[in-house]
Amino acid sequence: MRSDGTGRRAFLKSAALAGALGGKQQGATGPLSAGAGYARIYSGNQLRMIAFPLGGVGAGSISLGGRGQLRDWEIFNRPDKGNAPQYAFASIWAQAAGAKPIARVLESRLQPPYEGPSGLGSNNVPGLPRLEAGTFTGEYPLARIDFQDTVLPVKVSLEAFTPFIPLNADDSGLPVAILRYRVKNTGARKAAVAIAWSIDNPVGKEGRSNALKQTSGLQGLVMTNPFLSKADPFQGSFTLAAFDVQNAKVSTLRGWRSGSRWRVGPLAFWDDFSADGSLGPESTLKDTVCSLCIQREIEPRSEAEYTFLLAWHFPNRTPERCGWRAPKGQERSIIGNYYSKRFADSWAAAEYAAKHLTALEADTRRFAAAMRESTLPAVVREAAMANLSTLATPTCFRTADGHFHGFEGSNNQSGCCFGNCNHVWNYEVASSCLFPTLGRSLREASFGFCTDNRGKMDVRQLLPPGVENYEYAAADGQMGQIMRLYHDWRLSGDREWLAEFWPAAKRALEFAWISGGWDANRDGVMEGVQHNTYDVEFYGPNPLCGIWYLGALRASEETARAMGDTGFADECHRLFQSGSRWVDANLFNGEYYVQKIQGAARENIAPGLVSGMGTADTTNPDLQLGDGCLIDQLLGQYFAHIVDLGPLLDPGHIRKALQSIYRYNYKRNLYDWESVQRVYALNDEAALVICDYANRARPENPFPYFAEVMTGFEYAAAALMMAEGMVAQGIEVIQNVRRRYDGERRNPWNEAECGHHYARAMASWSAVLMLSGFQYDGAAKRVTARPRLNRRKFQCFFSTASGWGSFSQTQQAQGTVFRLQVDSGSVGCASIRLDKPAKLAAKSSVSLGRADLRHSLEASENIVLIMLESPIELKVGDSLIVKL
Predict the structure, then answer these.
(1) What pLDDT does residue 36 have?
(2) CA 795 – CA 753 distance, rounded (Å)
């Protein structure tokens, strides 16, 4: 189905949109229907779907709901949507001097629907009074809820987070959630205020035990189950602790009252707490629900903090439990969790977090501030940061050996599509940019055991590792991994690491040339049978796999030259030029790139290329792209921009193809869009569809997903638009995605595709790279910063493999001022590449602190290269300033 063209009116509207999004924050009635500024604010019905993951990268998570409740306890070695203990809630008690005390469950009021076989039941005491309302501010990794209540004599808010610090995967991987309540006494009289957390022991079912524990700065309860076997997936511990409780009264219940056929504990707890804001004495007969209460006196017009730490420790991850494929007989092998190697139990994890909380929180907030203070459009920042939460969900985990692994997404009670699936994970760049050791872990798996002696790379990895290979390879996945190896090396400049994996990467490229393979005639064109991210094989030359191949040839050329392998580099260059010319001449139809379908006799197809999910008739294949306009036809070019490899095809054709994607695939609403497949967008929602046949003949049975909408594809296309000058259109695409994730329609921290928290959606981070124009070459120690909007006054976060911080650019009549500041780690710098000012005079200066640095300039048509006479190492707090 054909959508409207891009005419002048539509373009001007998009350009105006880009300008608006780069400006002041908009309120809750803005175009995103939740607060469209950064950070984004949700209220009313927009709270309904919110589930904000709290937990460490690869360590599991508990989600904070929009009302302040905890939901989706996914800490037990698998995804677990809807799982929660029978009781897990906070309560507040407040009494102004001389007044009657008020007690409430510390959540905003429940929202419809209220229907169920027992109404709302009794779990989490839905019949107890709650606070009137609340607003939720989401700025991953930070969440804040401001509660409103006209009866409560104090104002209360909640700040919730888990440390999330770029380049520090270990301290960003704590199995901990921090809940800090701030209470402000706005009255003229002193107020006594207590907050209690109650949690039913979540460690298994029968035989659970709760124990008091106290160490320096930490006081609380440790929940265990001594009756579980040592290998049980639920074996472990959970901690509820109070932090920084000086000058506070702390009281506990190791269990609520029990002893009756009818449960008496909830009423006994509420009577106890609501009477005086304190707990105890304990009943002789106790159940498994424990409570921890902090009470403080707050002077008039003063504030107090109540900080709770939740920590978990469940070491027995197995492939069977989480849904990962294992070699036969090893399904129940314990592959473990990395955090369980760092901490003996949940109390040790909580203790570590408490001891280092000041520094961990400062670094987390410094990262959040760097994005908040950026001049990137609010919606670009919001999309990029929101999808980082996927790293803390069960989609991702680190095994006991420290290696990072990822499903494609998460089903309700199991991982979805195991194996670090390379064609899916190739879209995202967040892992490499923010946690380079985790990105390199994925590459080490791909170019380790997963690449065999022929060069075939497993599209999925089995666990335990190093035992059994997967059956087949993906053309787009394998070529993308070659480009990603080059990217990881550029970020770090670690030649020794590159040298270790270069032989396997070289074999992986040469695998394309085997008999019956992807490019058996070595002409730079993939004519062979190409398994790909659409879970079928494309037969014959097509843009998706073919342009990934061109990118892999260019990346291999550059890598080979760095490794001194000039003969191989020259061959890669020859194939790239040949393939690029052929693709432009034969696949570009004047508007976009198409597939030339070419069947193949099964006996002529090399082993490992056919998955069994594609066509049954290989000589006359169905499930093909054909003449469709594919959303990710230029995906190899998308990644080529990220790694600074230049155009892979005719630049004019690239821009026309992107304009066609915007013309045909972009639907301003979906009322009339026809799809019998999965539905991720509908009705009044705007989106880029996967494929539109643009009034050309559609195959009778085209490739699966062609009519679907999936956010990871949209983000990659939007980022490429930005890189190719279609900045307004790219921003518009991202705005439309995030409008769909508004808290009322969908959870803003859960972009689904094949499963919740889908990895491909982390491609949203690439828009930060494209708009900021920041690139780093670690081998050459070269910084590039060429913003694509707001050039007169631009500021943005940046990261390399060794350090991160912010950079800014100011353009004035006198010239350009560029500043690079390091907030963490260090960054080596030998040269800086900037946009050439309109008037470039001979006078320039480069300074580090008070020291002027000797340098020279080289200018081309659009770029200025500033070369330092001696390379420098920027450390924390250093600012490099360039004036042109």
Answers:
(1) 58
(2) 33
457: burial class by Cβ within 10 Å (0-12, 13-18, 19+)? Answer: buried
Judge whether 317 and 194 are in contact, CB under 8 Å: no
- Find out whether 560 and 541 touch, Cβ atoms under 8 Å: no
CA atoms within 13 A on the CB side of 842: 0
Q: Which amino acid is at 754?
A: C
Burial (0-12, 13-18, 19+ Cβ within 10 Å), 850: exposed
- Which residues, 6+ apart, have CB-to-CB distance to 467 below 8 Å? 327, 330
How far is 334 from 320, CA to CA, in rounded Å?
10
What count of other Cβ atoms lies within 10 Å of the Cβ of residue 230?
8
Distance CA 507, CA 180 (A): 52
The secondary structure element, H or E, covering residue 486 is helix 475-492
Per-residue CA distances from 845 to 817, 852, 853, 856, 878 (Å): 10, 7, 8, 10, 16
How far apart are alpha carbons 131 and 771 in whole angstroms? 42
Q: How far is CA 688 from CA 239, 717, 762, in A?
A: 45, 9, 17
DSSP string over 499-560: HHHHHHHHHHHHGGGSTTSTTTT-SS---SEEE-TTSSEEES--HHHHHHHHHHHHHHHHHH
Task: Tell me how far apart the alpha carbons of residues 800 and 786 are, in angstroms, rounded to a whole number.
Answer: 16
- Both tokens of 126, joined, read 């839905």
CA-based angle 256:261:265, to the nearest 5?
A: 15
Give the count of alpha carbons within 13 A of 597, CB side only.
19
CA separation for the pair 157, 720 (Å, rounded): 40
Tens of pLDDT, residues 374-412:
999 999 999 999 999 999 999 999 999 999 999 999 999
**Phi, psi for residue 599 in degrees, rounded to 5:** -70, 165
Q: Which of 387, 390, 373, 434 is nearest to 39 (CA)?
A: 373
- Give burial (CB, 10 Å; 0-12/13-18/19+) of 473: buried
Q: What are the 10-residue block averages of pLDDT along the chain, 884 residues in total? A: 37 39 34 65 97 98 98 98 97 95 98 94 96 98 98 98 98 98 96 98 96 94 96 96 95 94 92 98 96 98 98 98 98 98 98 98 98 97 98 98 98 97 98 98 98 98 98 98 98 97 98 98 98 98 98 98 98 98 98 98 97 96 98 98 98 98 98 97 98 95 98 98 98 98 98 97 98 98 96 96 97 89 98 89 88 94 94 96 94
Question: What distance in Å separates the CA atoms of residue 257 and residue 254, rounded to the nearest whole number?
Answer: 10
**Residue type (1 letter), 52:** F
What's 713-726 look like in SS3?
Answer: HHHHHHHHHHHCCC
**C-alpha distances out from residue 218 to 176, 348, 782, 806, Å:** 14, 11, 46, 35
Q: Taking the model in full, what pTM does it have? A: 0.95
Cα–Cα nearest to 349, from 213, 212, 177, 204? 177
- pLDDT tens per residue across span 644-702: 999 999 999 999 999 999 999 999 999 999 999 999 999 999 999 999 999 999 999 99
